[in-house]
């Protein structure tokens, strides 16, 4: 991992499984040591407002739910190009969903140098619940562990370099 | 689209449907039927989620209200919070401290900034520069989009400062705020506002040069009007035909009613459609603009009060300038406090609130019991107040535009007219689909 400060953003809403991005941030924050070289943000349907966060980061991991008929809670890491080609125009506030926002940021040269998308599949965003379904809850734990390990490994690597 | 290439059409029916959207602030549809050179049917229907919130609020404690009503809109939660706390404080006979009143105005400045910047640059501007979206526009006009994003970010920063987050903030309460910003945070904000002041003034001049249609109309403007300042949070409720009332007198002059083609309530003033929003505000409060901003507006050569609805775009730009001007003043004189809210003693009562949301007048009424539980709530959002006016404008504007235009041109014109009001369905009207039927 490079020494550039990492920005991790969880995007979501309070609605059922759609809150998974927030849960990842909350659980990761609880596990990480204070010296971790990263900033964590949970954002509520930021629309184009996401760009102000992306613009100030060199490296960003973006966590979001992916609506799918697939098994819920499954981890996917879609490529940026693939996501930006998708049609999510109806999914965000005032017409700016994640794909539109990333497309706009790219047009303006405001994307981080490195951006990774970390997604979990969900079947629906239950507007009457603020709880994750068991399958997505398990998926969140798996994703948190995956991200945590990378961060810890990165810290160990940085320590070794500084000692060498 | 059906049957669009028959000979000698005697009539045609255009239906514009907005698909149901789950993560936006409303949904609507427009039905348009044209027979020869006459509009036979024009119906704007909006489904307004806020109606449910009134019922949700019943039986809730008064402290819960600001956080619940913030959920009504992702773009203007501050307006809902500020109107609710104003109404509840009136019901409890509580007068907010000077510090609270000033910081509420600053909080509100943040919302106007972010909402107007979003609307001008990402929603409306593509209409006037010939693009189908801000993404397409960004390639040719990156500086315009970046300016919009920077202003939106500045507004969001102000909201976050008081609300903890920019979408559905949680920092406001009946009596004040849960916390006071640190002086260093205010100082940083002040510097950013200073940097934005000049390019906000440029934005006004730039908007005045856009090819806005010349489309004069006759309409009634309704907005707040305060003694000395441009209205955000307080003032009498006035109209361009001479009305001047307190928010408590709303029901004597305004009426909400159902229409057969819409599940949302329509609001009428003296039985007629009326306009709320930036153009109505500016038309009624031109003399409340700070001199510097008024001089800048006058330099554009566009006169106000204006009867051209498309000057709403310019009015929003002026209000961005104003929000920055006021925020600069409020941050330059900021004094930290250990008491960001004053304790409130609930009592049985009725309270009314009226403030200026970015897209227009927002009115609340609450009845509370002795414990401060909500017995009843009424909320009249700006978008439902503008519904009848939008339909009226579409009727006239389409005739003026010319019904002999192509289906696509008619659709685009309808979208432009609707979007100009910045309704919460503007997200949906970007995706209007056109089904054309021609009758033999």
UniProtKB/TrEMBL annotation, chain A:
<comment type="similarity">
    <text>Belongs to the peptidase A31 family.</text>
</comment>
<dbReference type="Pfam" id="PF01750">
    <property type="entry name" value="HycI"/>
</dbReference>
<keyword id="KW-0378">Hydrolase</keyword>
<dbReference type="InterPro" id="IPR000671">
    <property type="entry name" value="Peptidase_A31"/>
</dbReference>
<keyword id="KW-0645">Protease</keyword>
<keyword id="KW-0064">Aspartyl protease</keyword>
<dbReference type="InterPro" id="IPR023430">
    <property type="entry name" value="Pept_HybD-like_dom_sf"/>
</dbReference>
<protein>
    <submittedName>
        <fullName>Hydrogenase</fullName>
    </submittedName>
</protein>
From TrEMBL, chain B:
<keyword id="KW-0560">Oxidoreductase</keyword>
<dbReference type="InterPro" id="IPR029014">
    <property type="entry name" value="NiFe-Hase_large"/>
</dbReference>
<dbReference type="InterPro" id="IPR018194">
    <property type="entry name" value="Ni-dep_hyd_lsu_Ni_BS"/>
</dbReference>
<dbReference type="Pfam" id="PF00374">
    <property type="entry name" value="NiFeSe_Hases"/>
</dbReference>
<protein>
    <submittedName>
        <fullName>Ni/Fe hydrogenase subunit alpha</fullName>
    </submittedName>
</protein>
<dbReference type="InterPro" id="IPR001501">
    <property type="entry name" value="Ni-dep_hyd_lsu"/>
</dbReference>
């Amino acid at each position: 991992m490079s020494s550039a400060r990492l920005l991790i953003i969880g995007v979501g809403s309070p609605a059922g499984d759609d809150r998974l991005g927030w849960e990842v941030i909350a659980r990761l924050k609880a596990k990480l040591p204070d010296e971790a070289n990263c900033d964590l943000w949970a954002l509520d349907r930021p629309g184009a407002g996401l760009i102000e966060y992306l613009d100030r980061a060199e490296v960003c991991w973006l966590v979001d739910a992916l609506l799918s008929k697939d098994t819920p809670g499954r981890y996917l890491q879609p490529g940026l190009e693939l996501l930006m080609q998708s049609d999510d125009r109806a999914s965000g506030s005032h017409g700016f969903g994640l794909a539109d926002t990333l497309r706009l940021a790219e047009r303006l040269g405001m994307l981080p140098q490195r951006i990774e998308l970390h997604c979990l599949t969900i079947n629906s965003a239950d507007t009457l619940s603020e709880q994750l379904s068991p399958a997505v809850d398990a998926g969140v734990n798996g994703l948190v562990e995956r991200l945590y390990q990378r961060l810890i490994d990165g810290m160990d690597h940085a320590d070794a370099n500084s000692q060498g | 689209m059906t049957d669009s290439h028959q000979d000698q059409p005697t009539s045609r029916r255009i239906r514009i449907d907005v698909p149901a959207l789950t993560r936006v602030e409303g949904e609507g549809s427009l039905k348009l039927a044209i027979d020869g050179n006459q509009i036979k049917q024009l119906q704007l229907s909006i489904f307004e989620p806020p109606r449910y919130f009134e019922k949700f609020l019943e039986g809730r404690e008064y402290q819960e209200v600001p956080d619940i009503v913030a959920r009504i809109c992702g773009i203007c939660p501050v307006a809902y919070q500020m109107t609710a706390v104003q109404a509840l404080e009136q019901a409890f006979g509580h007068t907010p401290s000077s510090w609270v009143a000033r910081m509420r105005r600053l909080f509100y400045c943040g919302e106007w900034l972010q909402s107007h910047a979003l609307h001008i640059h990402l929603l409306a501007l593509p209409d006037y520069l010939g693009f189908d979206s801000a993404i397409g526009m960004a390639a040719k006009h990156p500086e315009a989009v970046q300016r919009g994003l920077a202003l939106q970010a500045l507004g969001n920063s102000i909201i976050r400062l008081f609300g903890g987050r920019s979408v559905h903030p949680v920092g406001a309460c009946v009596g004040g705020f849960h916390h006071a910003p640190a002086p260093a945070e205010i100082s940083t904000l002040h510097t950013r506002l200073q940097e934005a002041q000049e390019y906000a003034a440029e934005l006004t001049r730039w908007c005045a040069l856009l090819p806005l249609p010349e489309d004069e109309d006759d309409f009634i403007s309704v907005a707040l009007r305060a003694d000395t300042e441009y209205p955000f949070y307080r003032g009498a409720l006035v109209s361009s035909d001479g009305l001047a009332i307190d928010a408590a007198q709303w029901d004597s002059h305004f009426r909400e009613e159902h229409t057969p083609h819409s599940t949302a309530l329509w609001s009428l003033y003296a039985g007629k459609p009326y306009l709320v929003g930036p153009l109505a505000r500016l038309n009624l409060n031109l003399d409340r603009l700070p001199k510097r901003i008024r001089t800048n507006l006058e330099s554009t050569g566009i006169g106000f009060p204006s009867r051209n609805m498309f000057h709403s775009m310019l009015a929003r730009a002026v209000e961005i300038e104003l929000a920055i001007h006021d925020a600069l003043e409020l941050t330059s004189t900021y004094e930290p406090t250990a008491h960001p809210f004053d304790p409130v003693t609930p009592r049985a009562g009725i309270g009314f609130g009226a403030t200026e949301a970015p897209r227009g007048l927002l009115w609340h009424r609450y009845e509370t019991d002795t414990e401060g539980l909500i017995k009843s709530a009424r909320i009249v959002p700006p978008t439902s107040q503008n519904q009848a006016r939008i339909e009226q404008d579409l009727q006239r504007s389409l005739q003026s535009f010319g019904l002999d235009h192509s289906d696509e041109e008619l659709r685009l014109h309808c979208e432009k007219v609707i979007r100009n009001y910045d309704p919460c369905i503007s997200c949906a009207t970007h995706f209007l689909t056109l089904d054309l039927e021609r009758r033999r």
